[in-house]
Amino acid sequence: MRYGERLKLAMAYANLNQKVLAQEIGIKQPSLSYLINNENVNGSEKTVKLAVACGVNPQWLDSGEGEMIGSSSTSNKDVQAVVYLMDMLSDEGKSQIRIKMEEWIKSILSGKHPLEEVSLQDNNLRRR
């Protein structure tokens, strides 16, 4: 199954149309349409954002490996705690966290262990 077909399945799973999904991840709808319909697309730099927006496994969306909906040991309480902590950050801090999370996910998907390098003393993560 090609990338665009997996992306269509992910969108159906999330009940999202192209316009809404494109807005959610910050791209234009024609760009999303290209990812879906072009047979030569083998993933995208936006794969992690697309997967998160659709609630699917980023590795599956990127390569077709693994399950579309991966099992996770993370509870809803864990997610709520992270959201609560993120809400306490400044806009710049939130932006820096999002950038780091995308880097970490890409690193994990490539087989590296990015969390070994995490420093909790980043000055960009100031509270509001």
**CATH architecture descriptor of the largest domain:** Orthogonal Bundle
Shape: globular
Total of helices: 7
User: Quick one: CATH class of the largest domain?
Assistant: Mainly Alpha
Helical amount: 55-70%
Q: Care to count the β-strands?
A: 0
Q: Could you state the CATH homologous superfamily of the largest domain? A: lambda repressor-like DNA-binding domains
H and E order: HHHHHHH
What low-confidence regions span 5 or more consecutive residues with pLDDT below 50? 118-123
Taking all Cα atoms into account, the compactness measure Rg is 16 Å
What is the strand content? under 5%
Overall pLDDT metric: 78
- By CATH, the topology of the largest domain is 434 Repressor (Amino-terminal Domain)
Briefly note the structural class of the backbone.
mainly alpha
Distance between the termini: 45 Å
What this model shows, in words?
- With about 130 residues, the chain is mainly α.
- The chain has two domains: about 5-65, lambda repressor-like DNA-binding domains (434 Repressor (Amino-terminal Domain), Orthogonal Bundle), CATH 1.10.260; about 75-115, no CATH class.
- Helices cover about 60% and strands about 0% of the residues.
- The protein contains seven helices and no strands.
- α1 runs parallel beside α4 (about 45-55) and α2 packs across α3.
- The longest helix has 19 residues, at about 90-110.
- It is globular, with a radius of gyration of 16 Å.
- Mean pLDDT is about 80; it is low at about 120-125.
